[in-house]
Amino acid sequence: MPKEYVLREGPQFTLVSPSFKDGDVIPRRHTCDGDDVSPRLEWEGQPPNARSFALIMYDPDAPMGTFIHWVIYNIPASVRSIPEGVQKEAESLPGLGSQGVNDFGYLGYGGPCPPRGHGPHRYYFALHALSVDSLSVRRPATAAKVLDAMRGKVVGYAVLMGRYQRS
Predict the structure, then answer these.
(1) pLDDT tens digit string along 61-70?
(2) Going by C-beta distance under 8 Å and a sequence separation of 6 or more, which residues neighbour residue 1?
(3) What CA–CA distances, in Å, run from 63 to 33, 101, 119, 120?
(4) How far apart are CA 40 and CA 68, in angstroms?
(5) Which of the four pLDDT bands, split at 50, 70 and 90, describes residue 3?
(6) Are 48 and 13 spatial neighbours (Cβ–Cβ below 8 Å)?
(7) Chain centroid to CA 32: how far?
(8) Residue 29, CB half-sphere, CA atoms under 13 Å: how many?
(9) Which of 102, 66, 70, 105 is nearest to 85 (CA)?
(10) pLDDT, tens digit, for every residue of 116-164?
């Protein structure tokens, strides 16, 4: 069974993208077949006691097990969106928090890029509202380290899922 990177604790709030609706195909622009730029993400309805956020994007349908595409943590509580095209290879994002390493082996966003002919893959953007201002994560930060640091600190969550396949 693929590993999930969503801690479903506290109330669920809303995470959307102007690029695609929940359950729809992620536009080519945000994939390895296009410009490979991160989509804009926006959220609302988060718990009032949220002091920071953390985002993990993952593909549970990857042939070798769950594949991590993006990790951002220590997102300030005042932030309500992540812009399109977040800088890659940057650990620190002024005003946005810190990025971790994806399973491609670099910092930042790595768009959907499933094996050709493997069928449709699901890509989950899991945003967690946290009860702390920041997580203490040993660097280089990975999704597993961030997930472990979040345990017991999640006060709400939001999930957006997109699909992509390559023929």
Answers:
(1) 999 999 999 9
(2) none
(3) 19, 20, 11, 12
(4) 18
(5) confident
(6) no
(7) 16
(8) 9
(9) 70
(10) 999 999 999 999 999 999 999 999 999 999 999 999 999 999 999 999 9
Q: Is the dihedral angle over the CA atoms 7, 21, 58, 94 positive or is it negative?
A: negative
Instruction: Give me the amino acid identity at 54.
Output: A
Q: 30 by DSSP, 3-state: which? A: helix
Q: 């220590």: which residue's tokens?
A: 74
Reported for 36-39, long-range contacts at CB under 8 A and 24+ positions apart, including other chains, are: 36/109, 36/110, 36/111, 37/84, 37/85, 37/109, 37/111, 38/70, 38/82, 38/84, 38/85, 38/86, 38/108, 38/109, 38/111, 39/84
Residues of the chain above pLDDT 90, percent = 95
Given a cut of 70, whether residue 2 has pLDDT beyond it is: no
Greatest C-alpha distance within the chain: 45
**pLDDT tier, 167 (very low <50, low <70, confident <90, very high otherwise):** confident
Contact of 30 with 123, CB cutoff 8 Å: no
Scan for tokens 């593909």, then name that residue: 59
Name all domains of the chain by residue range, CATH numbers in brackets.
14-164 (3.90.280.10)
